[in-house]
UniProtKB/TrEMBL annotation:
The protein's name in its UniProt record: Aminoacyl-tRNA hydrolase
Gene assigned in the entry: arfB
Ion transport keyword on record: no
Enzyme Commission number: 3.1.1.29
Organism: Shewanella eurypsychrophilus
Enzyme class: hydrolase
Length: 138
């Protein structure tokens, strides 16, 4: 069982694991061993609650395909086990992030004092620049 939140769990068989050759430095080791871990998760065929499914499908994330699959790839380490753990942590973080409700922004007006300070600062900058000008520029 994979814990997403206190009330949401996924079966391990819903995740499809692939181990592929990692790119980048590593010498001959990187050419022989499949250390990069990749998770493929089908959102529509999963046991996630509908709220999670809809929110994930709406999310604009490069790891979510148009066909409704999440693909998380990790190749940070030369260790397959470490890459597997990191990919799983990234997957859980992505799925759990849709349950966090953003606070609504309340529009506010600048105070009179802040408006006055801003205008005074602009006048001071203008006066400083006016002193730098040549008298022949007028």
């Amino acid at each position: 069982m994979i814990k997403i939140s206190n009330s949401v769990y996924l079966q391990e068989n819903e995740l499809e694991w692939q181990f592929i050759r990692a790119s980048g430095a590593g010498g001959q080791h990187v050419n022989k061993v499949s250390t990069a871990a990749q998770i493929i998760f089908d959102i529509n065929a999963s046991s996630l609650p509908d709220f999670y499914k809809q929110a994930l499908l709406k999310r604009a994330d490069h790891r979510i395909t148009k066909s409704g699959k999440i693909i998380v790839k990790c190749q940070q380490s030369r260790s397959q086990d470490f890459n597997r753990q990191t990919a799983l942590a990234q997957f859980i973080e992505l799925v759990a992030s849709v349950a966090i409700v953003q606070k609504r922004r309340v529009a506010t007006k600048p105070t009179k004092g802040s408006q006055r300070r801003r205008v005074d600062a602009k006048k001071q900058k203008g006066a400083t620049k006016a002193l730098r000008r040549n008298k022949s520029d007028y």
